[in-house]
Design brief:
Length: 273
């Protein structure tokens, strides 16, 4: 239980039903506005791929995401973690969607049994020329290269290539994008495609499970498979599963979550800097 002068903070594993899998995110419930400098310092201290900061704004919640090095425009797993905390703490009605206000516009999250369902914008890729040294950095020659507002997308020859990938992280960090999505059609029942995501340019060498990358992957694979509903697996060492549905220019992402840590920022850590 938190006390006066402390700020609640949680660690939630997202896109999983098991602790210590999926993608961990920190979720900080703000009592009032805080400076960018303070939020960046907290995110560095948490040292997770993203820390989410929530501030109530009337009937909605303002939501911002920070990696240990930068603020980002869109983050799926930390949004799922944020919604999970609000539902579990009784700060949101599970019978109604949560409205988030973000740098990527309005987002929504709904409780669906033991899952949270996110309503995100599609981030479609366009065919792109591979940057110099791209294949060498990945360790394979992509069958297709695309790019959207955030990332490069590389189509691998098969799922095993994705699973075994050991890219040159330093080379990927020099690319003028947030990150690189590597994907292939699945070779296992119950899953349509697999992926991994590398974002060293924003301080995340490999992200365990990336909701925002699936805003690109869902329309990419939907067009190739002729499907509007798909199941995806992000084949990082922690691993995570997503259920996806295309809805025009929106992508509906669903996954489970587990709270693994509850605490509070106290004393000088809770004070503005």
């Amino acid at each position: 239980m938190t006390t006066a002068g402390t700020i609640p903070i949680f660690q939630v594993d997202a896109f999983t039903a098991e602790p210590f899998r999926g993608n961990p995110a920190a979720v900080c419930l703000l009592p009032g506005p805080r400076s960018d400098r303070w939020m960046a310092a907290v995110a560095r201290e948490m040292n997770l791929s993203e820390t989410a900061f929530l501030l109530r704004d009337g009937g909605a919640w303002r939501l911002r995401w920070f990696t240990p090095t930068v603020e980002v425009d869109l983050c799926g797993h930390a949004t799922l973690a944020s919604a999970w905390v609000l539902f579990e703490r009784g700060l949101a009605d599970p019978a109604r969607p949560i409205a988030f206000l973000s740098r990527s516009g309005p987002l929504a999250a709904a409780r669906r049994g033991e899952r949270v369902e996110l309503d995100f914008p599609a981030k479609r890729e366009e065919p792109a020329e591979a940057p110099p040294g791209f294949a060498d950095a990945l360790g394979f020659v992509p069958r297709y290269v695309g790019r959207n507002a955030f990332d490069y997308l590389a189509l691998a020859p098969d799922a095993e290539t994705v699973r075994r990938l050991a890219p040159d992280i330093a080379a990927l960090a020099r690319l003028p994008v947030r990150g690189v999505i590597v994907t292939a059609e699945s070779d296992r029942a119950g899953c349509d495609f697999v992926s991994r995501f590398f974002a060293p340019a924003v301080g995340v060498d490999e992200d365990p499970v990336t909701g925002s990358a699936h805003c690109c992957l869902a329309p990419f694979w939907g067009a190739r498979l002729g499907r509007t509903e798909m199941s995806a697996y992000q084949a990082s060492p922690r691993g995570g599963t997503l259920a996806l549905r295309l809805a025009g220019e929106r992508v509906i992402l669903a996954g489970g979550a587990v709270t693994v840590l509850e605490g509070a920022l106290t004393g000088r850590a809770a004070a503005e800097i």
